[in-house]
Amino acid sequence: SYVLTQPPSVSVAPGQTARITCGGNNIGSKSVHWYQQKPGQAPVLVVYDDSDRPSGIPERFSGSNSGNTATLTISRVEAGDEADYYCQVWDSSSGGVFGGGTKLTVL
Amino acid sequence: QVQLVQSGAEVKKPGASVKVSCKASGYTFTGYYMHWVRQAPGQGLEWMGWINPNSGGTNYAQKFQGWVTMTRDTSISTAYMELSRLRSDDTAVYYCARVAGIAVAGKYFDYWGQGTLVTVSS
User: A88 to chain B nearest CA, in Å?
Assistant: First the structure.
């Protein structure tokens, strides 16, 4: 089965840039999607197809994907960005695959 | 606007079954695959499978094959997920999630239900 690996936690000061990685075998050949989940809430899509943003998501959220690593980048981090972030791909044999999640802490 | 509204919290005993509903509105229910994802307390997201509301066809994650059943009632735009032979480690929040794209089985999830907490306890 296909496995996605994320760091358990990332910490960043307000106004700085946060980078959350998602590792997978040749993940660059797949489309990667990212979700933000705040406590007690359902996940919200923040980036899809590697680097596209749904309407309503700030331009501060961006994504990239190459080789064995996809990255979600959050620029000018705000306190309201503190949340868990999950990467996700669709794999032909495994189906929907999520990374283990990364807790973003805004210092 | 698109909305997915799920049924309320459930408490079940080990060995029982639970059926969670997901009522869709604001779009053509039969046009978009519906997936189910669960999240155990303090844990990550786990994909369970999908149902094609148009045909009723299903595809379950290997882990859940044989003990999850996904159905739908197109007359009321509602999808269902039934999990049988519940164990304590099935305690989780269960989400329905719509896949973006008409008649697309697997992609990303653009709309999610609010979640249904299922607690399995003796």
Answer: 8
